[in-house]
Amino acid sequence: MISNQKIAIVIPCYKVKNHILKVISDMISDVDKIYVVDDCCPEGSGDFVIANCIDPRVIVVRCGENQGVGGAVMTGYSAAIKDGMDIIVKVDGDGQMDPTLIPAFVAPILNGEADYTKGNRFFDLEEIRQMPKVRLFGNAALSFMTKLSSGYWDLFDPTNGFTAIHRDVAKHLPMKKISRRYFFETDMLFRLNTLRAVVVDIPMDAKYADEVSNLKISKVIGEFFFKHLRNMGKRIFYNYYLRDMSLASIELPIGLLMITLGGVFGISHWISSMQSGVATSAGTVMLSALPLILGTQFILAFIGHDVQSIPKRPFHLQNRNFSNNIKR
Q1: Domain 7-239 falls in which CATH fold?
Q2: Which of these, 120, 116, 169, 166, lies nearest to 310 by C-alpha position?
Q3: How far is CA 49 from CA 17, 45, 58, in A?
Q4: How would you class 6 by CB atoms within 10 Å of its CB: exposed for 0-12, middle for 13-18, buried for 19 or more?
Q5: Those residues with Cβ within 8 angstroms of residue 92's Cβ, 6 or more apart along the chain or in another chain
Q6: 300: CB partners within 8 A, 6+ apart
Q7: What are phi and psi of 213, to 5 degrees?
Q8: What's the pLDDT tens digit per position in 132-170?
Q9: pTM of the entire structure?
Q10: Hey, where are the domains in the chain?
């Protein structure tokens, strides 16, 4: 047994009819309930599971219209919370994820070390060689952008969908605001940071069989870039100006201002020098370079502070202690 805590599995289903029964049959015995979320699947995944699966733990939840992976997972979360589940594990229905790893994902939450755990396929350098090179590069780029937007500088592989979350954290998520489709996993990290939830990476192997990924990184990287900028701006405002003020709150605007002034001053004089043919004086160059150098140092100092500000106290434990104190 994992523990006396109730463990639920949420499996969003969309075009995974060929894999879903095996995913369910491979599920470990420690799991209490399995929520199969039929996301208005054109293959009729929900009906297929009902007709062919006899596992009493399985509950089919239907979405009235296609929600995307994020919407399907939120639907599963809501059902699990309503049924009193303690920890909710999200597993894809395409058979990529090994159910025997579930205890590893649940353990940090049970031990009070994390609020949310997610898979990371980049721990074993030998294993990731089987990952397609385009996907490898795309994940690296998305991981860096996610660090900036989410504030979780110690995480990697942000699009990994093998996750586990504590009920008390899931209950506080703004479920209607979380991205419904491919940006779901990375948007979740941004929302978790606004709660100051502790997130931990769990090593896992990359596994690719005959499944077809609907996510084409080359097509979404532009969309992801602008959404990451939006989330980064929101996170910085929430954490450094709305909720708290620190030295970093001053370093960032000063750094941006100095870089902007230095850049504008330098470019304008460079253009003027090109047009007139007269070399720019050393003093003018220094007047441009100095604010650029100082501004960069201020930005780096802000980033250093941000890296050190990764949440370290699990949200669900603080919430539980607060509730106990109120009852007293």
Answers
A1: Spore Coat Polysaccharide Biosynthesis Protein SpsA; Chain A (3.90.550)
A2: 116
A3: 9, 6, 9
A4: middle
A5: 11, 12, 16, 23, 161, 162
A6: none
A7: -80, 135
A8: 777 777 778 888 899 999 999 999 888 888 999 999 999
A9: 0.87
A10: 7-239, 245-327
The SS3 call for residue 54 is: coil
CB within 8 Å of 122: residues ≥ 6 apart: 128, 139, 156, 157
Query: What tens digit of pLDDT does each residue of 168-214 get?
Result: 999 999 998 999 888 899 999 999 999 999 999 999 886 655 545 55
113, 239, 270 from 236: Cα distances, Å: 25, 5, 34
The 3-state DSSP class for residue 208 equals coil
Rounded to 10 degrees, the C-alpha dihedral 31/76/191/189 comes to: 50
Q: CB neighbours of 79 closer than 8 A, spacing ≥ 6?
A: 10, 35, 59, 61
Band (119; pLDDT cuts 50, 70, 90): very high
8 Å CB contact between 188 and 142: no
Distance CA 62, CA 64 (A): 6
Give backbone dihedrals phi and psi of 118, rounded to 5 degrees, phi first: -145, 155
For every residue of 88-119, DSSP letters joined together read: EEE--TTS-S-GGGHHHHHHHHHTTS-SEEEE
pLDDT, position 157? 87
Q: Residue 276: what residue type?
A: S
Q: What is the pLDDT of residue 228?
A: 92
Tens-digit pLDDT profile for residues 216-258 = 555 667 778 899 999 999 999 999 999 889 999 999 999 999 9
